[in-house]
Specification:
The complex is a heterodimer of chains A (about 240) and B (about 260). With about 240 residues, chain A is of the alpha/beta class. Chain A is about 30% helix and about 25% strand. In chain A, helix 5 links the parallel strand 7 and strand 8. In chain A, helix 6 packs across helix 7. Chain A starts with a strand and ends with a helix. With about 260 residues, chain B is mainly α. Chain B is built from ten helices and no strands. In chain B, helix 3 runs antiparallel to helix 4, helix 3 packs parallel to helix 6 and helix 6 packs antiparallel against helix 8. Chain B is flat. Chains A and B meet through strand 6 of A and helix 7 and helix 8 of B.
Chain lengths: ~240, ~260
């Protein structure tokens, strides 16, 4: 279980001006749940993830993860080490005792079996993002953080990767927290959608979706998207 | 209009250009020496003869070997110490502010002063000689690697942090590969600088090596032998460049996307 209790995060510019990026954020994620955070661009979604990942510690409050606390992240960019092959990149993310783990199934599921010995520069963006997913799932983390993992992909590739992520997550359940500005993506994947306000980010709505991912049809997804649009329209930019 | 050409033909052209360039230099040398007809500017044939004499007596290989050993020792000492300090300075602004005046001082002390002081303080021995050469090179390595450490990509540092890379894993797989171009730059400029300083060290305080031989033949006014030693050491450096440095660089940059 992930317990997020952030009091707020302010940035200070060189001239002393302060920017209130994130307001008070309190939420709990159940084990093996899939949560999406949606919100307008620049509202503090990425800042929130960075605080949860421990990459930004300049805030008041705390973030707790029960258990061993293994965390994996899929960033906006694939962030593969360019001087290591796809397989080396995946294995490097594993702790020493797991470094020799059999990854055949994972690579096959992700369609990367033929790509294991290629360098990231030889991959298309779609394949590089698959490799980033492989790295995250190989670790079998307790918490998986995804920051707009399918941004700047064409619609067809993005949709394929969404379905792939769904399949991987079902086979290897973990607590997933994903930031996206794509409402359709959130409605497709999440069992809980948290809507952020404009800066400073606070939670303006939290929607739970009971229907399991696999049973959702286009009309169900559209209904959730419509509901999200309604929430956003009630909270216009100040 | 031809706008693209396969690399096979192009390679031949580059090779021909190089060979042609060397040939023109040799012809120029021959013509000028012939016109001057002076002992102080011997033609290629005379230098070749001097080379053969030195080779047959065994002096050439022995002295080249001694110089090469000093170059290699000084190079590794300078690279190791310089890189460690440079990376530290690049990563810690506080240490950098503290060390910067020292670095500027060291960068501006003439090579000759360091060599003379090393011989006075530590005696006319091999350690003082190699140490003095290394000390001349260390500031350059520090400055180059400091820039490299400052240019490290924070995205990879964050990735390594999330995935809990150990210090050793981070150094080996994240930090050092990013510093590779800076190591290559420090190596290139380093080897060229070091061998020039080694000759001065040999001239001032050693009893063998290319620098010492040049000192002797300078007193004998034997320009042919001086050039023979110089050219053969340049040849040694060329072999190091093409047989070691370039293949090594190709190997370490395999991952880079191909470009012209």
């Amino acid at each position: 279980m992930l317990d997020v209790n952030i009091e707020g995060r302010k940035f200070t510019a060189a001239d002393g001006a302060t920017l209130h990026a994130v307001g008070q954020l309190k939420f709990k994620l159940a084990a093996a749940s899939f949560t999406c955070i949606v919100g307008p661009s620049g509202c503090g979604k990425t800042t929130t993830l960075r605080m949860i990942l421990g990459l930004d510690q300049e805030f008041a409050g705390h973030v707790q993860l029960s258990g061993k606390g293994t965390v994996a992240a899929v960033f906006q960019e694939p962030r593969l080490l360019p001087w290591r092959t796809v397989e080396q990149n995946v294995r490097l993310a594993l702790p020493a005792e797991q470094a020799q783990a059999n990854l055949d199934d994972l690579f096959t599921e992700l369609g990367l079996s033929d790509m294991r010995n290629f360098f990231p520069a030889e991959l298309s963006l779609g394949l590089a993002r698959r490799a980033a997913l492989a790295r995250a799932f190989a670790l079998q983390p307790q918490l998986l953080v995804l920051d707009e993992p399918f941004v700047s992909l064409d619609d067809i590739t993005a949709e394929r990767l969404r379905r792939l992520l769904m399949k991987l997550w079902h086979a290897r359940p973990t607590t997933a927290l994903m930031v996206t500005h794509n409402l359709h993506e959130a409605a497709l994947l999440a069992d809980r959608i948290i809507v952020f306000s404009d800066r400073p980010a606070i939670i303006i709505e939290s929607i739970d979706i009971e229907q399991p991912q696999a049973e959702r049809h286009a009309k169900d997804i559209d209904a959730v998207v419509l509901r999200l649009r309604g929430v956003i329209q009630q909270n216009p930019e100040e | 209009m031809l706008i693209a050409q396969g690399s096979a033909t192009l390679n031949w052209r580059t090779l021909l250009t190089t060979v042609g360039s060397v040939a023109v230099l040799l012809v120029l040398w021959f013509v000028v020496a012939d016109l001057l007809d002076d002992r102080s500017f011997p033609p290629p044939a005379k230098v070749g003869a001097a080379l053969l004499t030195e080779y047959r007596s065994g002096d050439l290989l022995f002295n080249l070997g001694m110089t090469l050993m000093r170059v290699i020792a000084a190079f590794f000492v300078a690279m190791f110490i310089g890189s460690a300090i440079g990376i530290l300075l690049g990563m810690s602004p506080t240490v950098n502010r503290f060390a910067d005046p020292w670095l500027i001082l060291l960068l501006n002390i003439p090579a000759l002063v360091i060599i003379v002081l090393a011989y006075i303080w530590f005696g006319l021995n091999e350690s003082a000689a190699v140490g003095a050469v290394a000390l001349n090179k260390i500031p350059n390595v520090i400055v180059t690697l400091r820039e490299g450490a400052r240019a490290l990509n924070p995205e990879f540092t964050e990735m390594a942090r999330v995935y809990r890379f150990s210090t050793w894993k981070k150094l080996r797989h994240v930090v050092l590969p990013q510093l590779q171009p800076f190591f290559a730059a420090a190596t290139r400029s380093g080897i060229a600088l070091i061998w020039k300083i080694v000759l001065i060290v040999e001239l001032l305080g050693r009893s063998n090596g290319v620098g010492f031989q040049i000192h002797i033949y300078f007193q004998l006014f034997d320009v042919a032998t001086i050039l023979a030693y110089t050219l053969s050491f340049v040849a040694v450096m060329l072999v190091i460049e093409y047989a070691i440095l370039q293949p090594l660089e190709r190997r370490t940059s395999r991952w880079r996307p191909a470009r012209a």
